Amino acid sequence: MRNYLIAMATFAGLYGILALGLNLIWGMAGMINLGLAGFFAVGGYASALATSRLGLPIVVGVVAAMLIAAAAGVVMAMVTARLRGDYLAIITLGFAEVVRLVASNEIWLTRGTDGLSGIPGPWRGRVSPEAFNLIYCGIVVLVVAVLMVLLERVRTAPYGRVLRAIRDDEQVTAVAGKAVTAFKVQAFAVGAAVLGLGGALYGHYTSFVAPDTFTTLISIYIVLAVTAGGTGTNVGAVVGAVLVVFFMESTRFLTGWLPLAPVRIAALREFLIGVSLIVVLRFRPDGLVPERIRIVTPPLAEPAQPGGTR
User: Fold this and answer.
1) Which of these, 63, 98, 91, lies nearest to 76 by C-alpha position?
2) pLDDT for the residue 251
3) Cα–Cα distances in Å, from 298 out to 48, 173, 255, 295, 301?
4) Is the pLDDT assigned to residue 255 strictly greater than 90?
């Protein structure tokens, strides 16, 4: 049970990283991104190929994954710069599916549906499996904490205020003299880099990546996590990710004793997860940790003095 809880904490941290990346793109900048699984896969495969085939250190592989995912984010942002709403969601969803199909068919690079195995992990083989799980959980928690601090600085900085202004009204922000397209491309790139980081950490933890791992369902889970936790808040994104993992695993125990076929049990679990999140949003429509925007009140003007002076 102890190893199981550590593994679930690790996966909750990985989901938290993905939620933080989405929160930057969607929660702060207002760009709907349903292609999370695509950037997640790009990061996972990039780091796996860099470390297992090229023999590069894990840190170099992770950095390469972030850079490649960021480059993909720049291309995606530039292609979709003039798209909004449903159109942007469809394009990003198509991007994720294209990445999955490429990974499934380019056997010379990704080994197709067989996936890449033997991805190295930090100290794997030199410590016991239990110790490796605990060490890796600590690494993931540390990464989540660092990302939260950095992205919170971004959110409260003037840069973050511009992103929220773009989210609320893009035209007004442009009239105010801000380069809207440049800000959107930068936000998409940084968010994609965070998603690629999550994919790299996932690959080094499981030691295996395959196209079936990066399905659209992951994108849906992360969108639900950000929505349930609180759109626009980094703490809410992580809280929502932990909540989603909790619902995913608790339903496993709730349905494990039912005399149903595995396919029906899986469908029932998805139903229960959806119902649980709907209940959360019914009572907390703004999320468990709603965004709070500080309103600055201008100082009152001093009364005019006799003679036209103040």
Assistant:
1) 91
2) 79
3) 53, 20, 57, 10, 9
4) no
**Identity of the amino acid at 46:** A
Domain-located, residue 299: no
Distance between CA atoms of 89 and 103, rounded to whole angstroms? Answer: 22
Which residues constitute the domain of residue 194? Answer: 2-215
pLDDT computed for residue 304 by the predictor: 55
65 token code pair: 């994954």
Contacts of residue 45, defined as CB under 8 A and 6 or more positions apart, other chains included, come to 103, 110, 116, 199, 203, 209
Give me the number of domains the chain comprises.
Answer: 1
Residue 73, in any domain of the structure? yes
Query: What single letter denotes the amino acid at residue 196?
Result: G
CB environment 127-152: b (16+ within 10 A), e (fewer):
eeeeebbbbbbebbeebbeebbeebe
Find out whether 34 and 96 touch, Cβ atoms under 8 Å: yes
What does residue 65 show for φ and ψ, rounded to 5 degrees? -60, -40
Whole-prediction pTM value?
0.90
Q: Mean pLDDT in the chain?
A: 88
Residue 279 belongs to some domain of the structure: no
The predicted structure's pLDDT at residue 303: 57
pLDDT of residue 217: 86
